[in-house]
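Marked as duplicate of an earlier ticket. Keeping the data here for the record.
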Amino acid sequence: MPKRAVVAGASAVLASATVVSLSYAAYRTSPQPQWNEVAGGPRPPDAPAGAARPSTNTWADCADRPAGAMLAAVRRVMFTGCTLFARLWLTKLNTFHVVRDIHYTELVGLMRRRARAQPLITVMNHSTVVDDPAILACAFPFDCIASPRRSRWTLCSDELCFQNTLAAAFSNTGKVMPIARLKNSRGHNPCGGIDQKLLLDVARRVAAGDWVHIFPEGRCVQTGRLLGTSDTDNDAHATAHSFSTHLKWGVGKLIAHSPTPPVVVPLYHTGMQHVLPLSPLTNRLKSRVPRVGQLVTVRVGAPVAVQDLIDQYEARYGPLVRVSADARADSAAGGDWHMTWASTPAQRELYRAITERIQSALASLQDEAASDLARSGQVASNRPVV
């Protein structure tokens, strides 16, 4: 193993331990979220004033904590450190290439200068657990990723990233929000699905004009193809670890109920499955030590137009409920999130149509990436892991 890889790995472990400690301290000192009926349902009679709302996961609530002074400072340290380490790892120990075309330039412009209330949603294929932040840190300018104010919010399964206090504190510091899988390691999860409260929390981030980064496949896929676009999705690896053959519709719901139409930009990357390969049979890492000397590529697509689908729905069924960025405003208006966030069959069809259009955009980027690799003689970079 190259000496510089060992040094980089040891540095990463030390830095991670430091950031986790600081994150936990910031978590403990930041203000508690206040109870409100939209967020947690009607207040129980015995709930004390200022009580934190309940959640499907005890630690998921820390994602709602406001960024106090200490948390903001720790968050800046984390984002800067992770960005620098990711760049060292992928650009020095591996070969990293991003296609800097007009779509790339437009996306960077949106990260830096979009209107205050303009939401940005980026969608990307998912190969490894470190696609975010590693891919984003290397693909885009430092000021777009290392700045907590500009950088993205993203999602992670609550049973993985919010399973205990330390994991929750670390995830909260990294602007990660919990999401409940419909089917998790314990089987069917009644708190999952597109009508869950945790997805409404994400929708409020979109409504506030934030950048939200989503992996609509919902899991790591290392077949070399986007989930649902190839017969390889029916192999042993996909069959054992997937619960559907299409992208998750939650992204469609976030778009449909945003008060301001978000700009939806697809990204597609190749090669990460060879940096951190998973076993096709167990879906676990083959090695905890990342490989070096691999080629990783990223390309950005044109914004996905979906407003026509929303307009068609509203012309037929009436206006959709728009999510407010402030849950307290809905509470004051007598809103009940259980009722307004529940999806009708017609709305689910809308979410499906929006998600299919996103899948089509990602599939087009996938084909472009495969063609570029073929022309450069690097076809092996996008082969499935065996």
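See parent ticket for discussion. DSSP finds 16 helices and nine strands in the chain.
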